[in-house]
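Tokens as discussed.
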């Protein structure tokens, strides 16, 4: 079968907003569990809330200028060490005002409090577990 219309990047790029709109509901289902772990991978504590970036931001490009948030992998695991935790908290605080509703802001406040509690404990890490 021959293609009647040649493939062009611009014509397919025009369809991207339609695709994003059609899967937007699915993106809102993604959430990552957060754990405080020892250096041996033992769970010290589980965060009472999960992290769903789509509740706090409208577009994934919003995190591209961050040092930590941009590396959170929705499909894998992301580990932050003690040196990274203050930066992570700062970045989470910066997106707090962008949270879409009061429930999302409360969730983010809970996550920030959890990460603060994990800080300054040698040989422990905060891990985001993706899908």
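Sequence:
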């Amino acid at each position: 079968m021959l293609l009647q219309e040649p493939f062009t990047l611009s014509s397919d790029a025009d369809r991207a907003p339609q695709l994003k709109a059609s899967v937007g509901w699915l993106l809102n289902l993604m959430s990552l569990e957060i754990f405080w772990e020892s250096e041996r991978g033992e769970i010290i504590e589980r965060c009472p809330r999960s992290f769903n970036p789509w509740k706090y931001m409208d577009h994934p490009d919003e995190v591209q200028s961050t040092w930590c948030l941009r590396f959170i992998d929705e499909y894998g695991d992301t580990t932050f060490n003690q040196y990274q935790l203050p930066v992570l908290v700062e970045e989470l605080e910066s997106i707090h005002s962008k949270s879409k509703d009061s429930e999302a802001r409360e969730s983010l406040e809970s996550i920030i409090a959890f990460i603060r509690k994990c800080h300054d404990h040698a040989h422990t890490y905060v891990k985001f577990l993706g899908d």
